[in-house]
Amino acid sequence: MGTGMNLSLSQIAAAVGGRLIGPDASVTGPVVTDSRQAAEGALFVAVHGERTDGHAHLGSALGLGAVGAIVSDLEAARAGLSGEEIEAAPEDPPMGLVLVEDTVTALGALARTHLAGLRQAAADRGQRLTVVAMTGSVGKTTTKDLTRQLLAASGPTVAPRASFNNEIGLPLTVLEADERTRYLVLEMGASGPGHIAYLTDIAPLDAAGVLMIGHAHMGGFGSIEGVAAAKAEIIAGLLPGGTAILNADDARAAAMAELAPAQVLTFSSRGGAADLRAEHIVLDEAARAAFDLRLPGLDEPRRVRLAVAGAHNVANALAAAGLALAAGLGPELVAERLGSVSIESPHRMDVTELSGDLLLIDDSYNANIDSMTAALAALPALAGDRRRVVVVSEMLELGESSAADHARTGELAAQAGAAMLIGIGSTQEALEAAGARGVEVVGFADAATAISQIDALLSDGDAVLVKGSNGSGAWRLADHLKEVRPR
């Protein structure tokens, strides 16, 4: 992981409205919030998190080569550097400390300054740094992966690792760009109003995609209309000549066209009228879709066969194609590359053959009723004649729809032909709904308990879908199966 920055700590202090205490130095390495990722020339940003306070880890960052840190608690920072109690910490720190009121806000300000500088430097060279982003209740990270690969073949591209889409992950991604970067691909998430507006203030966009307005994090918005209003902030964050890429199959996403400052590209995977369309969709035995792709600028459709599983990924592929077109790639090039791109981030429809002929479908990174519906819809094609076992965790942050959505999950599992439904956490409604439809059900209080029992519940030749919220730890169960049943 690199950084394009080559600023002194005093310049960084000026950019973030902070005060430099201790020695000045040039930051030539990565900007990190995890002290274990520090390296020579790094800048460490001490974030006060739920589990730990970054100020306590300044000594570790220094030992790995960090030359400075952004801090909000000077005394705690001194103690972290010395390894002593606060009362015994020395006055003069061994590395420069940029003191600010809020380190996360300072991180955003630094990223904003860095990106503005890169864009200006590119313009001075007669070049362009194109910034694209996507949001939606499901599909963001998959679309990010596909978009990154489409663009990377045309020039140096920076994109987030895994799901770096919040007020910490996004600026860290921006700070990895440098003067060679041609494309910057960002993912923007929100768990409440104003979150995406904050992110687009850091990184104003040349192109913005809205995938689907669903029920993710409903508890933070109050209603589906609240979710839509928050996602619309990404369109408001477009630059004056920016392009909006909107899902024509989702009425709330399509309605954002009136907010777009310039061009709008729509996409449809359901046969709707749109600029980008997938027609005559056929799934193969591995649930990979083949379809006729229509793009603006193509004189006739191109047959594309996706390398990713799940019919729902057709829409994600179309969104990625729209973002690539908006970034300046030619339609022939986009059509040619679309069939070779794949999902890079872990725990997202990762289909693996394990020992004992066990088929694992690992979609355990997150879960809401929309992504649950998509994953269960893909199960019959993926499982074929195998016995189908579905592992679901409690879906978090759903608000008032929680009970109904969990019950619907049980119904969907039965419709998908599940022989067994295994629930992790508060999944009683799902288990009851599935059990009423003849599915064998087993519930566990947490992921650790499920892991201790799962091997006895599975048989060789089963197809196992693991679907859960990241915080539930369902992904640990998927990793356990990969460990105990290596290929």
Quick structural gist:
This protein is of the alpha/beta class and 487 residues long.
Structure in words:
The protein has about 475 residues and is an alpha/beta fold. The protein has 17 helices and 22 strands. Strands 9-10-8-11-12-13-14-15-16 form a nine-stranded mixed sheet. It has a six-stranded mixed sheet with strand order 17-18-22-19-20-21, sandwiched between helices. A five-stranded mixed sheet has the order 2-7-6-5-4. Helix 5 (about 140-150) crosses helix 11, helix 11 runs antiparallel to helix 12 and helix 16 (about 445-455) packs parallel to helix 17 (about 475-485). The chain is globular. The protein starts with 6 loop residues before the first strand and ends with a helix.
Structural class: alpha/beta
Instruction: Please give the share of residues in helix.
Output: 25-40%
The first-to-last residue Cα distance is: 30 Å
Integer average pLDDT: 92
Oligomer: single chain
What fraction of the residues are assigned to beta strands by DSSP? 15-25%
